[in-house]
Write a structure and sequence with these properties.
Helices cover 42% and strands 16% of the residues. It contains 14 helices and 16 strands. The radius of gyration is 23 Å and the shape is globular.
Length: 458
């Protein structure tokens, strides 16, 4: 059991991080913890006018920060890593409270922030450029990398802090101020990360005002960043639908864009696979974080010769998995983020049944609070890849299908719109190499004998 009520624990954790913002603003943005469905804070929000002011402040900071030597800029990031280490427990707890993650996942996300800071500090002394031969006698060409400008970072609820730091640590080393628009579902973690950064800034001593800012509020703030010609680069994490909106808008003003979007990630289990290892990897990859990772395994193709061995074992694993509040139990599966996520999951399962699918699990689990949405992960045996199988549903649903021909299953694997992460389970070297080759997986991440879930510090 928690040592104190969740709102009180939230306030205490934020105070330890150094957050000074009022948490009980009347009519403010209500922050709801998916663990219990309780409102843990009510925050003042920023307006589009506030966003414009933040952009102007960041632009002024850029004019000073770009002139600071890169190794000196790296010193700020090194100090931030030190402060993150000191505040790791509190920041990890905020991730659990706001995103519903287990304590180990919350701490792991903060560790990813520390790791990328360490990496960025090294890069601060490696901003090399090439010297290039030219046809002109007595001349040479030199490549020099200059700071870009203000960087806008838009993040999603499921990883409320690490993706910001992946971008911010590198941007700060490269001479670029950052403005962070976190998900309105997880703004408290952002405020905590900013407060910890301000400790590093105080130790650093001579950083310009507005080097890092946080905007709390709705989509209009992200739109202000995306539309502003003063924001040189937008890095946005979210759905493919969001990416289709952001990408063209930034391109229309000739800005730069980094999009980390969803993925309808698949695994292939071949006849020679180590079935015990595959079972463990698939179970975690599909059920971990309640299926709310961009790299969650959502589709599984099993060779017909292995189907009757693997799938019954998967059904058993799904039936026995523990679901519950990760701050109070050792449950593997925590809550969905909100009611909308639950309804989206149920709609996908109904559609799967209409297309001939057999659903194992997927029901809502009874908990004390009606406002919290805990579900049993769903294993869905499908006759073919159709309907909801072709779309990403941000919930713990794994669609399982048989295959017989390796070349055909590669085509099925690649026949969806979102290609982010992928896995193959096999001990056949030819299948491994084919999967990793140009005619294999079309995903940016291709794994062999491990699940799809996760990415090395971004």
């Amino acid at each position: 059991m928690l040592s104190k009520p969740l709102p009180a624990l939230t306030a205490e954790t934020l105070e330890r991080c150094g957050v000074s913002a009022a948490l009980d603003v009347a009519g403010g943005l209500q922050v709801v913890s998916p663990l219990t469905g309780e409102i843990v804070a009510s925050l003042a929000t920023h307006s589009a006018k506030d966003a414009a002011g933040a952009i102007d402040t960041a632009a002024r900071a850029f004019r000073a920060w770009r002139l600071v030597p890169a190794p000196r800029r790296g010193e700020l990031v090194r100090l931030y890593a030190e402060e993150l280490r000191k505040a790791k427990e509190e920041l990890g707890r905020m991730v659990s409270i706001e995103a519903g993650k287990s304590p180990s996942e919350g701490l792991g996300e903060v560790q990813e922030m520390i790791d990328i800071c360490d990496f960025a500090v090294g890069l601060s002394r490696q901003l090399y450029g090439l010297t290039i031969a030219t046809e002109r006698p007595g001349h040479r060409m030199m490549e020099t990398w200059h700071p870009l400008g203000v960087v806008g970072i838009i993040t999603a609820f499921n990883f409320p802090c690490a993706p910001w730091c992946w971008n911010a640590a590198l941007a700060l080393v490269c001479g670029d101020p950052v403005i962070w628009k976190p998900s309105e579902k997880t703004p408290l973690t952002a405020l905590a990360c900013q407060a910890v950064l301000e400790r590093a800034l105080a130790r650093f001593g001579d950083a310009p005002e507005g080097l890092s800012q946080v905007l709390v509020g709705g989509p209009e703030l992200g739109e202000a960043l995306v539309d502003s010609p003063k924001v040189a680069l937008i890095s946005a994490t979210g759905s493919t639908r969001m990416g289709r909106i952001v990408g063209p808008k930034v391109a229309a003003r000739f800005g730069k864009c980094i999009l980390e979007l969803g993925g309808n990630n698949a695994g292939i289990v071949c006849p020679t696979a180590d079935m015990d290892m595959a079972l463990r990897a698939i179970a975690f990859g599909a059920m971990g974080t309640a299926g709310q990772r961009c790299t969650t395994m959502r589709r599984l193709f099993v060779h017909e010769s292995a189907y009757d061995q693997l799938v019954p074992a998967l059904r058993k694993a799904y039936a026995s998995v523990t679901v519950g509040n990760p701050l109070e139990t050792q449950a593997l599966v925590g809550p969905l983020i909100d009611k909308a996520a639950f309804e989206s999951m149920q709609a996908a399962l109904r559609e799967a049944v209409e297309l001939g699918g057999t659903v194992h699990g997927g029901q809502r689990e009874p908990v004390e609070s009606e406002a919290a949405y805990y579900v049993k992960p769903a294993l869905v045996e499908m006759p073919e890849q159709a309907g909801p199988v072709l779309r990403e549903t941000f919930a713990p649903i794994l669609y399982v299908m048989k295959y017989s021909d390796f070349d055909e299953v590669l085509e099925e694997h690649n026949a969806v719109g979102g290609g982010l992460s992928s896995s193959i389970f096999t001990t056949d070297l030819r299948e491994m190499e084919t999967f990793l080759s140009a005619r294999g997986s079309d995903c940016g991440i291709a794994n062999v004998n491990i699940g799809t879930s996760g990415a090395e510090i971004g």
